[in-house]
Amino acid sequence: MDENMDQKRLIVKEIIQARELIKELQAQLNSSSFSGQDLITRILCSVETFLSMLERVKMKNESSPESPLGYVDLFPGGSRKRKGIVRWTEQVRASAQTGLEGPLDDGYDWRKYGQKDILGAKHPRGYYKCSHRNGQGCLAMKQVQRSELDSSIFNVTYIGKHSCIETSELLSEQYSPIKQEHDQRRRPNYHQEQREDKSFEETYINFQTSSVQVAKDKDKQFESFPSFSIYSTTSMQPNVGNCSETKDNHFFPPSVKPEIHSPSLSPSPSPSPSPSPIFISTPTASESNYKMNHIEGYNIGEDLLQTTADSHDTKDQMIISPNVSATSFVNNSCSNLMDSSWDWDFPIDFSPPQF
DNA sequence: CACATTTGACCGTT
DNA sequence: AACGGTCAAATGTG
Fold it and tell me: Bias regions of kind Pro residues — which residues (predicted)?
């Protein structure tokens, strides 16, 4: 467990180091006499190291039959929900086609079997079973609830995997290029197969301080933990220029690369209270749309924390060591300390559910 | 008529 | 007891 703690520290340290370096870059760019190349290289080195870490997490997940890439099992080990049933949450924006009221076409046939007003929620939660439950014995279910923050967004929690063969799939095998991504989702067992689809090998991890409120007392140290998101894809080359980051530590893949605005280039710099020379706009919701489905940020954040809180050996976690980094930066080149002995079995667990 | 949705009742868990 | 999840009768739809 001491080893696990060290690994956690390294990961946290790495991102914090990146953040600090970026802050330093901001300050130095303000002085205008500094090109910032050295710092940029170091920052990107840290980011690359972290992405490599994520890659390792993902590779580890690939051994799971139930945890497709880009979807983090919310309850590893089935600690609080029924064991042996995968459960994950996606966030789907109502499109112009489906309208605000849905239904949300995720490629499967669902039959609504209930609706419930949820305490403290503005919108009721709908309960769905796969339409092929009777015919094919498919046990997949989902719950749909409109987001509190954005009523055009639906939080969709999937419970269990489909064992059915979908009728629409049997009827048509024709996919238009434009519909390709959506139709990927229509494939039977899409979620299970996604991890095998190289074009979809993406990992999106999102921690947010706003979700810390649900953490239990022994996880209080998370309250000072900064918000950050990482969006990784194996198609991302070592060319760190593909990575973009906001001042809130949000990374995006090239496909949703945010637009970068520099006050020196922009006519009217944002009147931010604290000087921030680089402003990066996040992708619009419409750009994200199904891209954002990979993880439901708030839920992932809180569920990771809750999952962590369920572990028995996590009371003393996430204490940030100031002296450890996985990255060494020598002569403008980046190397890190990760090797085959790296063990990812630390309590913030991406490992597959245990049956 | 067959099937889907709605909705209040019921049940298990906390 | 309160809450979330499910059931099933009533109702709606094609």
Answer: 266-276
